UniProtKB/TrEMBL annotation, chain A:
Part of the ABC transporter FtsEX involved in cellular division. Has ATPase activity. Essential for cell division and viability. This is ABC transporter, ATP-binding protein. GO terms for cellular component: plasma membrane. Belongs to the ABC transporter superfamily. It comes from the Bacteria. GO terms for molecular function: ATP binding; ATP hydrolysis activity. InterPro entries: AAA+_ATPase, ABC_transporter-like_ATP-bd, ABC_transporter-like_CS, ACT-like_dom_sf, MetN_ABC_transporter-like, NIL_domain, P-loop_NTPase. GO terms for biological process: amino acid transport. It catalyses: ATP + H2O = ADP + phosphate + H(+). SUPFAM superfamilies: ACT-like, P-loop containing nucleoside triphosphate hydrolases. Keywords: Amino-acid transport, ATP-binding, Cell membrane, Membrane, Nucleotide-binding, Translocase, Transport. Residues 6-253 form the ABC transporter domain.
Automatic annotation (TrEMBL), chain B:
This is ABC-type metal ion transport system, permease component. Its main location: membrane. GO terms for cellular component: plasma membrane. Residues 27-221 form the ABC transmembrane type-1 domain. The chain crosses the membrane at residues 33-54, 75-93, 99-119, 163-184, 204-225. It is found in: Cell membrane. It comes from Liquorilactobacillus capillatus DSM 19910. It is a multi-pass membrane protein.
Amino acid sequence: MAEKIIELDKISVTFKQKKQTIEAVRNVSLTINKGDIYGIVGYSGAGKSTLVRVINLLQRPSSGSAKINGDLFYEKIGNHEKVIDSKKLRKKRRKIGMIFQHFNLLNEQTVVQNVAFALKHSSLKEKEIKEKALNLLQLVGLEERADSYPAQLSGGQQQRVAIARALANDPEILISDEGTSALDPKNTLQILDLLKRLNEELGLTVVLITHEMEAVKRIADRVAVMEKGEVLETGDLLDIFINAKHKLTREFIGTEKESAKALATLGKSKLVKLGDDQECVQLTYIGSAVGESLIVKLYKDFGVVASIIYGNVEILQETPVGSLFVIIKGSTAKRKQAIEFLKKQDIIVTRVKEGEVLNG
Amino acid sequence: MVELFTKYFPNVVYQGWSGDGGWLQAIGETLYMTFWSALFGGILGLVFGIGLVLTDSDGIIPNRGAFSFFDKVVSFFRAIPFIILLAFIAPVTQKIVGTQIGTTAALVPLSLGVFPFYARQVQVALASVDRGIIEAAQSLGATFSDLIFDVYLREARSELIRVTTVTLISLIGLTAMAGAIGAGGLGNMAIAYGYNRFANDTTFIATLLVLIFVLLVQLIGDLLARILNHKNS
């Protein structure tokens, strides 16, 4: 049983704007284990940023409880509110690093001063602070830019400074609030790989908020999908990828798009018309690519002809996940046998019918 | 050269350098009034400006009552025309400095006249600090004083210098007006010795000196603001 580091229980956040009340987060419970890279995905306005701000109490919730690394930060039972004392909170916040979409570095301080700022209240002496700041910059590969100002750096470099700053107090948690969303693809990958490295080398728990599924696919272990202030589903990345329950999740993962593509191909192409003895299925399989030999096997053993109309392989948690859209042709009984066989091979078979993806 | 000057500016020469009514005294009084009222009014304005930003609804310690207090006081003093303020607070001046006339007495209305203007300018300057930067500092466990000194004031420093320059220039204008209550200075020189005595040359030189003063403040302010700005280098 993994150790829990972030426990959010029935968290709601409401904002009052004049006479309107906006429920940014509704009754969300989320547990994050130590050492995990936890991705929280959703479109903008889904409440992701508001939710993670509860973790370091930059945002005070309206109800629920938040327990971070064993310390109770916030709890509301009935009308009785319990909030961590502000001096203690400041201390605890230093153990929760956070990076932002727009980096938010101090513009009027040099790179090394920015990192040193985080250490202002540490027990270190001035000389040791500078030393540690330089070490941290070395960790993110920017030691030679120590005396530059943030505006002189590229976006990716600024974000690396922000990471060095967030790591200054040896935090156990690092929150990335759309940390790669303002970066170009190359810098995005560099930052993601850096986060992954920090997770592996320092055992850092990373909370990754993003609207880009690619970021989550690359490094996350577990995923939560948010919409309209609620968490739709949570789970292991592979699990979510293969057995997404909600349409939104599939949209994010890209399977929805794939199906749409496959169906469009089907519909447009006059050559492909599903006859009585044909049906379109999606095959999803994990691990070694077996697609090619499967098709041969289907024909040899079951007399079912399978033609591929769309195929894709993704790498999740260093595991290839393949997805094939095929049209199988054969008698009803033979097709059924073939599908049974496929299921036994740990292949997920999804029927694709008339513009709809039926999870089967 | 000296003869030529004496010929065209007889009254200027008549005023003399030193002594009562001399140019040195007038320049000194203007500098004296500008310096001290900039200091007092500046501190007051800074406090109110910071107060306005911190207690505003999106500030770090939102407080409607305190914000409303700062806002009302600033608006009240800004609404009074300076020339009326001079007369209006004369009794207060009497209490504080013991007299209603003279250079030192002018410091009270000058400080009170300049502080609301400065407070609004400071408010705008500090509000330009990105909310995200403040949030990032909070996430690092910054204390209240860290947020004010290392984040708000430091991040806005070049903007603050710019608004301070504008305020100083407007203050120099006010010191000239304070000449009306016998505060002395170059304004007094231009009006009392120049205009009222039909000595246009004296008015001209006094104006020229004020202009040079303003220009110097502007140049130094611009230079400092540029040197201390690292936002878009």
